[in-house]
TrEMBL record:
Keywords: DNA-binding, Sigma factor, Transcription, Transcription regulation. Pfam families: Sigma70_r2, Sigma70_r4. The keyword Oxidoreductase does not apply. Residues 39-107, 150-198 form the RNA polymerase sigma-70 region domain. Gene3D superfamilies: 1.20.120.1810, 1.20.140.160. GO terms for molecular function: DNA binding; sigma factor activity. One of its GO terms (biological process) is DNA-templated transcription initiation. InterPro entries: RNA_pol_sigma-70_dom (IPR014284), RNA_pol_sigma70 (IPR000943), RNA_pol_sigma70_r2 (IPR007627), RNA_pol_sigma70_r4 (IPR007630), RNA_pol_sigma_r2 (IPR013325), RNA_pol_sigma_r3/r4-like (IPR013324). The keyword Acetylation does not apply. This is Sigma-70 family RNA polymerase sigma factor. It comes from Veillonella seminalis ACS-216-V-Col6b.
Amino acid sequence: MLNSYLAELEKIKLLTPEEEHALWQAYREQDDESARTALIEHYQPLVFREAMAYYWVVPDVMDCVQEGTVGLIEAVERFDYTKGVAFSLYAVHRVRGRILDYLRKEGKGGTVLSGSADDDEYWWEQLPDEGPSIESAVETKAFQQVVVEALERLPGKERHVMEQVYLADRSIASVAGELDTSNSYIHRLHRQGIKRLRGMLGRTRKFWNE
């Protein structure tokens, strides 16, 4: 299932700020369901990044992806685009909150850490509390441990695009402007980077297997 999800991520066309604004306008002012769907799809990489923080404590990271997607949908439905706040900053808290709620609920049900030497150690006890420390936990526990290692092995321009989009949370348009090139060229580098990462992670991490 995870490989299929990654294949879908690879197909996502990242939006320019103007395109995203037009979608918000269509969804909020015209109740355009296709615009709502496009926004949810556009921000799936954010869900993936947050879910990856907990691959080390769950048998199937796709459970976290599914919960995170519920949080993303809630964020899309409640977000007020007219206030000038970046949606990613608003959505990340709902996505992360849904994942943490799910993990705590499942953990309190008695799921033990996979591979733990201590039979009394439950993985919900290792989850970070709500607060400023969650962000650093996300970065250090998974995304930096797994994906960044693979990012370093990408060709230079692909690596730069992936780092800017996923780590620096920049838009395709801003990266294109920095490199003085077209949006379509950056989209192509992004797709190539996703494809290479799938291959590298699939060979080196067991949990990437279906």
